[in-house]
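Hello again,

I reread your note about wanting to compare the complex against the isolated chains. To keep things tidy I'm splitting this into two emails, and this first one only covers the full assembly. Below are the input lines as submitted, including protein chains and any nucleic acid or small-molecule components. They are followed by the predicted structure of everything together. The single-chain runs will come separately.
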Amino acid sequence: MPDWLPDHWTLLPRRFYQRPPQEVAPELLNALLIRSDGRAARIVEVEAYGGSQDPAAHSYRGPTPRTASMFGEAGHLYVYFSYGIHWGSNVVCGQEHEGVAVLLRAAEPVQGIDRMRELRPAARHDRDLASGPGKLSQAFGLDKSFDGADLVTGSHGVVIARDGTPPPTDPVIGPRIGISRAVAFPWRWHVRGHRHVSARAPRPASAARR
DNA sequence: TTGAGGATTCTC
DNA sequence: AGAATCCTCAAA
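Full-complex prediction:
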């Protein structure tokens, strides 16, 4: 365990991640993503990806140089480049060579907020600092150089830990965002009513508001 | 507050 | 060609 992790935070152990991403994802809610410089944010939105039945996952067609870390040991980061501009950060789950992971989609900053504001000049509210996978990665400085980072040993100065807040017992569960295949899988979880989630749940065309 | 459209580069 | 997205701008 990294010596820079405060005593009052409990590191998630390797075995936590060595399970299906659909089990790990909801349990990551309310956990803290932590950088060695003191930045910390509470994870409030996640999505599960991977497995031979998930055509929306980067791992669907087998390992490539890009997705190598997603097929590696659980508890490491898989960081990918997206839309020519953004980085997305995943936590590798399951067993080696399985290719399953949890995408970190949104978090609520709790510490080191000034540094996040520096890295996210476009954010007009603190609510915009990490309320999306690209924003979250930017606020934490996660890019290609963090691909493969070990969240259990803190090899790259990033870990995930708990502060005593348990995962919510009633998370909102629904379809994933921003994909075009396997759109019906209910593999997105977020903390109910939380203001820092990335997007409003898509509103059904017929059953609109009211 | 909401929606539309452009940005930009890696991957297969 | 299309992408696990973000930002700006316009209009209400």
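For quick reference: Chain A has one domain: 10-199.

B.
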